[in-house]
Amino acid sequence: MMNELENFIYQYENEQRSIMLYLHNLFTDELGLFEKMRFKIPFYFQKSWICYLNPLKNEGIECCFLRANELAKNDLLDFKERKQVAGITIYKVKEIPETELKIILQEAILLDEQVPYQSKRTAKKQK
Fold first, then answer.
1. Is 89 exposed, middle or buried (0-12, 13-18, 19+ CB in 10 A)?
2. b/e map of 53-80 (b: 16 or more CB within 10 Å)?
3. How high is the pLDDT of residue 32?
4. The CATH number of 4-116 is which of 1.10.8.60, 3.40.1010.10, 1.10.3720.10, 3.90.1150.200?
5. Radius of gyration (Cα) for the chain, nearest Å?
6. pLDDT tens, position by position, 35-79
C-alpha cells in the first residue's frame, strides 16, 4: 500500500514522476533522510528540513534547499528572487547533475547536523 507521498509522486507522469522517484530514492534510501508531505509537496529532513521537491507547470521538478543561503556558493542553485531557498530545476532524469547534487546534499545535511536551524521569523519577533 502506498503512503501519501508515494501517491503524490505517482499522480505525475513521464519525466516528472521519474525525476521525483529518482530523487526520493536518493534522499531516503541512499542518504537516510526522512520524508513528510508538507504544504502538499514532498519534504525531506533529518533534524530539520533539508530539501523539498516542487513539480513545476512546465514539466520540470525543482529540488529546493531550505537553507541554501547558508550553503557554499554554487552555480547550480537558483534563488529566483528568494532570500533563503534556492533550487535546481531538472527536466530529465539523465540530466540530473548527480555528483554536484550529492555534494550540495552532503553540505546541507552537515549544516543540519552541526548548526541548529533558527527561524528568521522568531528572531524578528524577539527584537
1. middle
2. bbbeeeebbbbbbbbbeebeebeebeee
3. 92
4. 3.90.1150.200
5. 15
6. 999 999 999 999 889 999 999 988 899 999 998 998 988 888 999
